Each structure stands twice: as structure tokens, then as C-alpha cells.
Amino acid sequence: MFLSWHLKAQQAVLRGQILESETAIPLSDVLVRVGEKKTISSRNGEFIFPNLPKGKIQLTIQHQTFIPYSKEIDLQQDTSIIISLSSQPHQIEEVRIARNLSHRINTVRKESRQEAEGKNLGEMLSDIAGINTLKTGNNIVKPIINGHYGNRILILTQGIRHESQQWGLDHAPEIDPFAYERIQVIKHADALRYGADALGGLILLENPLSDENQGSSLSVNSGLNTNGREGYLHTLIRRKSGAFSVQGGLTAARSGNIRSAKYYLGNTGKADLHANMLSQYHKEKHQIAVLLTQFKTQTGIFQGAHIGNIDDIQQRIKLGRPIEQYHFSYTIGAPKQEIQHLLGKISYRYKWNSHTVLESNYSIQKNHRKEFDLRRVQSEETPMADMVLTSQQLEIVLKRGTSLLGIHGMLQVNNNTPGTGTTPFIPNFDNHSFAAFANHLFSFGKEEVQLGLRYDFKYFDAAGYRYDYDRRNDDGTIPQVLLKDRKTFNNLSGVVNSRYSITPFLSWNSTLSFAWRAPSANELYSEGLHHGTATYEIGDLNLRSEKATKWINGIHYNSNRFNLNAEMYGQLIKDYIYNKPSPKEFRQTIRGTFPIFRYSQADALFYGVDIDASLRLAQRWDYQLQYSFVHAKNLQDNSFFPNIPGDRLQQSLVFRINKHNENAHYLKLKHQFQRTQTRFEEGSDFDVPPPSYHLFDLIYSKSFALKEKRNLLFSIAAENLFNTEYKNYLDRLRYYAHSKGRNIAIKFNYSL
Q1: CA separation (Å) from 102 to 145, 440, 449?
Q2: Is residue 731 within 8 Å of residue 136, measured between CB atoms?
Q3: FRET pair for 7, CA 20 to 30 Å: which of 38, 210, 630, 708?
């Protein structure tokens, strides 16, 4: 026994992860050697060498696409290492050595990213366990994390909070996924660092510029989709010269009416034009970066959802499909949305020494949203809503070792542009906030503990006119009253995150967090027709802040053949705010009759499970599985909340045709099972949840190595292979129509 203990004391574990330097995407099937021992990196890019003798070891990494790597490591304790590899000479950089990886981050893998090119952000994230989507038709998609969406999810672009009119269910994030090479989802401790209102989690989008690559590069991504007859083109140019780096990208897309399995959906086309530019100067201790982006889109809203009277709307919901016959067209008429989002950011980073870094960021964003509806009097080119949201942010962060300290401030102004001929859906408002935060990571042998604390203060000042439906003027019209309101909110948030390595292959992670969220402008002040969702929404001035306690426990197992990440979570939210349907209420306006939704509050309990697993069945055969379910209970009346995802299972079988470079040539069959939402209260919605459904996709992908380091990637996919007719419970237009039918997607990616 003593001998066994003595031998164990002389041994240590080396574990690590291999990333692609340009994108930070995990690299699988990379050969890793320590002396005579060897292994292959897993699907997550991870490798493990248990029971290595303490002392100096030689680590070598080989892959035919990347330059070989070799480094001597003085192994004196259990150690984790993260390495970034590049295909260009001198592009192998050791990023970090630490005792353990403190938390799990879900990264959109390179393979999934390529398959989802041309899709929006929500659809691109949907392959991650626990991520669902809330839709308004097929072009407006919002991501859902553990049952939360909208203002309960933070989106960071290059370290800046994305600020837009995210309160609307039909307001998708104004993000061009082509502009960001690294897309990650964080559900754990680091989400608090960027905002206490991240009750669901954080979506992190970054586009790192390499400090090593010299010269120029070009990539062109193009694709065609048969459903909607869509075409898109994206170009990206990079240039690195000395200490200066710059890149610029342009994306254009156009599609027409979407077709369900059996009929066209009228006025469901879109037209996009996005641009971005990122420049960086990095010399010695100083780094300055400038980011400019433009997102511009015009999106049609299904015309069959805008109906004249109560009898018609009830008949349409009962029928569940449009009465009119639509044909294919690229024309986008009313109802529609036109959105432009502009972002400018400048950042400065000063590295005092190897342990201390000071960062400062200033950004300004302008979100201009126009919503058009069918008008009977004025021109349809006059918007029903014309809102401009301007946000300025300043952040200063000091990082020293495993400690972090920072402050964040925001000035935000929302103005409704006059001349629409309608009363604004939400009033003009000023929303100012200040926050201070701190974070520290402690290491105790095989265990890590991360502590975070944050204080937030918010100030709200709103003014606008509202209809008083309880009174009538002498001529029978409804009078308007001037609303003026000021509110302040403040609170503390905290998080404790612990990670313990049970074995070299198995680890346990636990996170306990306390967070809060102030009610947003629409929840407090909305009063009117929400054009995109074809609903009449009513806010509540007396809403209180949400206060949430969340506990996450996860088991993570990683080996060469099998990888498992399973998380269980429970979240208790006091005064949870939700948009409650009023099935017996309709509001008739001059533009039609619409169902009423009212913002309400109740104590809530969210709990669920997310599972992500992969298995190497045999040489060149892989199986992948993602499963998630979430329950959301109203604790006040023991009922279920609406708009919560049903159980979902997604699995895929992959045959790697090229045994020498498995990611370069493969055939994949994907299956998704969406269970009907059984956790539903009868009479609480305008229609019962749609039945369960199965969807199948078939994907073929092949990469070609051309002359002079040029590469071409070709892929073809049949989505909804069997043209299944189905409805998605989380589609706000499911009352009136079915979801998208079969689509053939063809993609070409060229790089040099």
C-alpha cells in the first residue's frame, strides 16, 4: 500500500485542449505524444495523459493540416494546457497553462458552423444542448437558453453588450454570424461578469486578429437555398503588416416567399446587406483596436396573420392554415420590418507585466427599427412604428492573475420618430446604468473555486401618450393621456463556481448564482399593436424586479472514444415577468382585430437537463447526441408558463469518408425529435400546442486542397428531407400557418 501511494505521489496528470488559432474552435483527431505514449484529441479538442512521471516531459502534436508542435514541459503537478495551432509557419502559440479549466464553455464547432452558414444566429446555435429558438415565421429567430430569451440573454460582440430593441418577440438579434469566427455560449459564472440580467446565459461572439500572420488572405462564402430561392454571398479580406492588422467583410443575401410542405407563405421574403471592419495595432505592451459594423435588413411578415375581425381570427386559428393562395415572389410588402444597426467601438489594452492587464472599451450603437403595417388611409411606405435606440457604453477592467475588477456604465436613449400617424407602442425613455464587478479564482489541488460579485444601478425616465380605454370622448373616440414615469432599480448579484477533477477523464462542476433583472420598457409601458407578432400587448407600471437563484451541476467525461457533458439545473425566480395570453380578449383597431397579451408577474421555478454526448462507434463512424428538457412552473397557482420549449432530442450519424483527414470529407444523417409541449394549461392560449414531429437532414461535405495553399469546400444538404408538415410551438405565427418545408442547401467556400 505504501509503495502504491509512493508511486502515485510521483505521478501527475497532463490534460489539455487543442484549438485552431484563427477561430479558437476545438480541433479533433490530432495526434498527441508524450514520449512513447500517444493519444488522439477528442471531438472537443481535448486530450488526457494520466499517470505521467513528474519532471520534464516532451510534448509533441501532429496533424497534416498544421505544422508539428513540440515543447518541453516541467510537470510537477496535475496540469492543464491550452494550445492554439495554425497552418502557417510560426503560428503555434501556447495560450495558457493552469491547474484546471475552471468552467465549461459551449463552442459552435467548426463542422456545425460550416453546415449552418447562411442561417441566422439563433439557428446556428440550435445544435448546442439547451439552446432552442423562438420564431416569428422563418426569418425572425431568437435564441432560447434554458427556457429564457430576449432581455434575459446577453449577447456580446467583441466584448460589447449588444443593445437593441430585444424586448420584442419578433425582434431577432441584429447579428451577422459571418462577421464572427468564434461563437460561444456560457451558462456559468462568467456570464455575471457582463451583466446581472443574464438569467439564461451569455452568447459570446468574437473575431480575434492574429498577431503572427503576415500578408493577406481572402475567403469567399456563397450559397443557394431552394426554399425561398435564396442566394447569399460573403467576402472577407485580411491584411497583416508589422504591428498593424485589418480585416473587412461584406454579406449580402436575398430570398423570396418561403414554402411550407404544401403551400407558399405570402410576404415572407428578406433582403440583407451587412458590413464590418476591424483594425488593430499591437506593439509591445500596447494594443488599440477599432471595430465598425453595419447590419441592415428588410424582412416581410406573413400577411395571413393580419386579420379583420374577431370571427375571422377565430376561424383562421381553428383552420390553422391560410385561406388565401400565395405564389412565389421576391416582393416584400407590408407588413414588414426594416432594421439598421450601427456599432462603433474603440478599445485600448495595456499589459503592465505577464500577470497584469488594463483594458478600456468605449462603444456607441444606433438601432433604427421601422415596422410597416397594412394601412387603409396613409401610404404603406409610412411606418407604423419608427424607433431609434442610441446606446453608449464605457468599461474599464483590471486583470491581475486570476483576479478581475471593473466598472461599466451605459447611457441609453429611445426616441420615437414623429410622423407615423400612430401612438408609439412604447414611449420615449432614458435608461442609464452603472455597475461595478469583481471576480477571483482560487485553486486547491484538484479543485477550483470561482467567486464573483456585482452591483448594478439602473435609472428609468419615460414619457409618452397612452389610450384610456375606460373613457370615451363625446364623439365616441378614445381619449389619450400623457404618461410620465421615473423609476430606479439597484441590487447585488453573486456567483460561486466550483470544479473538481474526480479522475483524469471525469470532472464535476457546480455553480450557484444570485442575479436580478429590472423590468424592461415594453413590460412596463407597452400599450398597442405589436405589428410583427400580430398581437395587442399591454404593460404594467407596477412590475417589480426579478430576483433569481440558480444552481447548476454538471458531469463532464472526456476520453478518446466517448465524450459526455450532462448538466442539471434549477432556478427559482421571484416576481418572474411573462407575457400572458388572454384567450377571451381581443382588441379591435382600425387595422384589424388582434389577440391581447398582458404582462404579469409570478414566482417561478425553472429546472431541466442538458446532455451533449459523442461516441466513436468504429473507425470513421461517429454518433452525436443532444437532449434537453426544461420545466417552468408558476408557483402561485401551480400552473405551467407559456412559451417554454418542449423536450427535444437531436442525434446524428457521421461517416468519415477520408480516413486521413476525417473532417475534410464526410456524410451525415441528422434527426431531430421535438416532443409536443405537454406542460400546458388548457384555456391559457389561443390554440393547443401542436403535435410532436420528426425532422431529418442529410449532409454531404468535401474539402479540396488546391494549389498555392488555396482551399475549396463544397457541401450539399437536404433539410427536412421528407418534407414533413409540422408546426413549432415556439413560432408565434403557428396559429395561422405551418413551418418551413424541404430545402436543398448548396454551399461553396473558397479561401487563399
Answers
A1: 21, 11, 8
A2: yes
A3: 38
Whole-angstrom distance, CA of residue 598 vs CA of residue 220: 46
Which of 97-101, 378-382, 544-548, 738-742 is predicted with the least confidence, judged by mean pLDDT?
97-101
Segment 530-539 mean pLDDT: 72
Place of cell 444523417: 669
The Cα 468–Cα 314 span in angstroms is 26
Is 527 in contact with 570 (CB distance < 8 Å)?
Answer: no
Whether cis (ω within 30° of 0) applies to the bond prior to 335 is yes
If 0-12 CB within 10 Å is exposed, 13-18 middle and 19+ buried, where does residue 625 land? middle
628: pLDDT strictly greater than 90: yes
DSSP-derived secondary structure for 489-525: EEEEEEEEEEEEESSSSEEEEEEEEEEEE---HHHHH
Q: Is the pLDDT of residue 305 over 80?
A: no
Q: Which residue has the cell 416576481?
A: 575
CA atoms within 13 A on the CB side of 438: 3
Supply the pTM of this predicted model. 0.84
Q: For the chain, how are helix, strand and coil distributed in percent, rounded to 5? A: 5, 60, 35
586 versus 743: which is more confidently predicted? 743
Q: Which residues in 679-688 are b (16+ Cβ under 10 Å) and which e?
A: bbeeebbbee
Amino acid, single-letter form, for residue 577: I
DSSP secondary structure letter of residue 151: G
Report CA 634 to chain centroid distance, whole Å: 26
CA distances from 556 to 16, 46, 186 (A): 14, 12, 15
Q: Please report where in the chains the cell 429590472 appears, as a residue.
A: 518
**For residues 597 and 643, what is the distance between their CA atoms, to the nearest angstrom?**
12
Cα–Cα distance list, 459 to 58, 410, 713 (Å)? 57, 10, 51
Per-residue DSSP letter, 661: S
Alpha carbon separation from 455 to 154, 391, 458, 490, 724 (Å, rounded): 17, 20, 10, 7, 49
Helix (H/G/I), strand (E/B), else coil: 396: strand
**In the prediction, which pLDDT does 410 show?**
96
Higher pLDDT, 690 or 335: 690
Contacts of 524 (CB under 8 A, 6+ apart): 460, 462, 485, 487, 539, 540, 541, 543
Query: 596 and 582 in contact (C-beta within 8 Å)?
Result: yes
pLDDT of residue 671: 97
| Mean of pLDDT over the chain | 85
CA–CA separation, 308 and 301 (whole Å) = 16
With bands split at pLDDT 50, 70 and 90, how would you rate the model's confidence at 532?
A: low
Residue pair 147/608 in contact by the 8 Å Cβ criterion: yes
Residue 706, C-alpha cell as written in the block? 488546391
